[in-house]
Amino acid sequence: MNLRDFEYLLALYEVRHFRKAAERCYVSQPTLSGQIRKLEDELELTLIERDTRNVMFTPAGESVVEHARRVLSEVKQLKDTAQSFRDPMSGELKLGLIPTVAPYLLPKIMPHLFQNFPDMGWQLEEQQTHVLLNLLREGQLDALLLAWLPNEMQGLAHITLFDEPLWLAASKDNHLIKQTGVELSQLDGETVLMLEDGHCLRDQALGYCFSAGANEDGTFRATSLETLRHMVATGRGVTLMPYLAIQEHHQADPLLGYQPFKSPQPTREIALVYRRGTSRIRTLQALADAIKESVTIPTA
C-alpha cells in the first residue's frame, strides 16, 4: 500500500463516484478502481459496496478512510514542517475565508502578498464559518480568516488582525442617516434586516441590535451582503454593515446611506485562526503582519 492509494480512497469517499474521483486525482477511472481493489486485497477487507448506481462504504471502509485521512494529514504536516524550516514564505498555503470578509479584504491584501511573498502559492476557499472550521480541523486548510468566535473555536489558536467596526446602513430617507453619528440605543424599535443562518455576522449583529431593542424582519434573510444592501436601500429596514464592505459604497450609492456609531462602537474581531501546534506558525505570523500592514481601520 502507498499514500497514493489513500488519496484515491479519500477522493472516492468524498465524491462517491469513480469517474469524478479519478478526475480529481488526475488518473483514469480504471487506474483508480484497480488501485482501490488492490488495497482491498492487501487489507483482506471489502471497503466498498459496488453497484451500477451507488458507491457505498462498508463499516470497515469507513474506518480505513478515517485512518487514511489521519495518515495523509500527518504526511502533509511533515512536509509543511520541512518547508517551514527551509523557507517559511514559500510553498503552498491553503487559506479559508468567510463570505463577509473575502470579497472586501482580498483585493486589499493580495497585491501586497504577491509582491512580498513571490514564492508562496495561495489556495483560497470561501465558505461559511462552520464549513471552514471542519476543513481546518481535518487538515485540509492551513488557516482561516474570519470573525473570532471563542465558543465555536475551542482547541484552535488565533492572531487578532483588527477590530472591524459595524456601521449602520439604511435608506437615505431614514432619519438616522440624516444625522452625524448615531447611538446604538437609537435602534430601539427599528426593524433590522439580516443575513441567513450560518453567517457568523448574523449572530454578532443581532446581538447588538436586540440589546438595543430592535426587531428582526422575520420574513426576509439575505444570502449575501450585496443582497442585504439592496433590500435595505428600499427602506424596508436597517442593518449593520462591516466597515470594509462599505468603503467603496460610502459616497456612491444614491439610495443607501451609512453612519458610524458613536463610542462604544459595535465591532467584530477579524482573526487569523489556525490549529494549535501547527508547524507553520512562522508563515502565519508573517502573513498576519502583512495583512495588518495592508488594512487601515478607523478608530472611534
UniProtKB/TrEMBL annotation:
Could you give a GO molecular-function term held by this entry? DNA-binding transcription factor activity
Domain HTH lysR-type, residue spans: 1-58
Q: Which residues form the signal peptide?
A: none
Q: Which GO terms describe its cellular component?
A: protein-DNA complex
Q: Which Pfam families match?
A: HTH_1, LysR_substrate
UniProt keyword annotations, A-Z: Activator, DNA-binding, Transcription, Transcription regulation
Q: Which InterPro entries does this UniProt record tie to the protein?
A: LysR_HTH_N, LysR_subst-bd, WH-like_DNA-bd_sf, WH_DNA-bd_sf
The similarity comment for this entry is:
Belongs to the LysR transcriptional regulatory family.
**Name assigned to this protein:** DNA-binding transcriptional regulator OxyR
